[in-house]
Design goal:
There is one protein chain. Helix content is about 45%, strand content about 20%. The chain has about 120 residues and is of the alpha+beta class. The chain has a four-stranded mixed β-sheet.
């Protein structure tokens, strides 16, 4: 693991501890150089209730490149839609140590617009 990734995971640790304290379902984001992934995980942290990413064929058809703000917004809309279908209205947003900026921010705002509360 690189030093940069270890620093990100260290930053994420306190957020995850706080979310576990709240006992809320969490919307977690993972960002790579070429894709963005989102998952809604139940309060116990044991089960993924909904997932969306730019790897999915439907998303790849809709967006040209998986690592931009437009693609992140599409994933945000899809994760909110799937979470609501699974009966989840409110989540805690886990940005996994990434800055709330760019793709992470676009995903969060699109999920909020699609009806997910956090």
């Amino acid at each position: 693991m690189s030093g940069k990734n270890q620093q990100r995971l260290r930053r994420a640790r306190s957020t995850r501890a706080k979310i576990a304290e709240l006992a809320a379902a969490r919307l977690t984001v993972h960002r790579s150089n070429s894709h963005i992934y989102a998952q809604v995980i139940d309060a116990s942290g044991a089960k993924v209730l909904a997932a969306a990413s730019t790897v999915e064929p439907e998303v790849r058809a809709a967006v040209k490149h998986g690592a931009n703000v437009k693609a992140a917004a599409e994933v945000g809309r899809r994760i909110a839609e799937r979470a609501r279908k699974a009966g989840i209205e409110a989540v805690a947003f886990d940005r996994a140590g990434y800055k709330f900026h760019g793709r992470v921010k676009a995903l969060a705002e699109a999920a909020r617009e699609a009806g997910l509360k956090f």
